[in-house]
Structure formats: C-alpha cells, structure tokens
Amino acid sequence: MTSVPAIETRFFAFESDFVDSLRCIPMIVRYKLDTCRVKLQLSDWAKFNYDEKDLLAEMPCHTDLEIEIYTDYLNELVWKYTNTAPSLLKNLDPAWVNAHVPAEVHERTQEWNCPVISASQWTQLNVLERFALVKLSRSGHEGRNFPRALAEFGLATAC
C-alpha cells in the first residue's frame, strides 16, 4: 500500500497573485499531481472551471484509494476538455522527502544571495513547504517566488 504524507490544503502567500482566480496551478495541486505522477499542462488547467480547480486543490490524495480517485477525476477532466489523456511523469525525484537540502535548492539560494538553509531548518519544514522550494528552484519557474517562499517559511528576511 502506498501512502504519502497527509497534508492539509494550503495556499501559500507567495501564490496570492493567482490563488483567488486559480489561473495558475497552486503548489498543493502540483504536489498531488506529482503524487499521481501526472503531468498537467497549464493550457489544460486553464480550461477547467473554478469549481473543478478548487476540487482538485481540496480532494485528498494520500492513500492508494485516494490517489486512484484523484487520478481518475483528473483524467476525466482532461479528457472532457481536450479529448486526450494527460501525460505521465517518467521520472519522479521526490527530493523534498530527503533529510538533506537538495543541491538545486542550495544553488537557488546562492543565486538570490539568500542565507544557506541548514539540514535542521530543512527538516523542520513540512512536506509541502519543502516541495514548494524544490519546485521553485527548478528551471522554468518564476524566480521571484523563491525568495518570497523563503521569507514565508521563516528562512530569510530579505534576499
């Protein structure tokens, strides 16, 4: 049986510029997408109505059954709007579950001249916070949210 850490639905303050409309995929949904190993295109997300997006944020996705239900619902939505199935993630590297700060997060703190995150600070963050920092440190993400996330998580006052 698979089980990922149960986390409450939470929207971060650094996501505040889009959470009201859900025009972008919030971290809580991205976490659940990774749990299901589904790669959802932003263009597909944009086709969902607000209630569908909100339900994807609120639905549990922790146990095998919840993951299956979540994946089925997501597949139904994508099919409804695109007549295609979403693609699957080939490799899932859940660096956020490790006890050490991932290299990509360390590199991003250096790029922004932010304080180094210690292993102790890293392990004190919850899974969703660690997930967010890993995702924000990867290429293709708006860099401005990385220092905002560090400040929100109490890891830096200003970078």
UniProtKB/TrEMBL annotation:
InterPro entries: NarM (IPR013481). It comes from Dyadobacter jiangsuensis. This is Nitrate reductase associated protein. It holds the Pfam family Nitr_red_assoc. NCBIfam families: nitr_red_assoc.
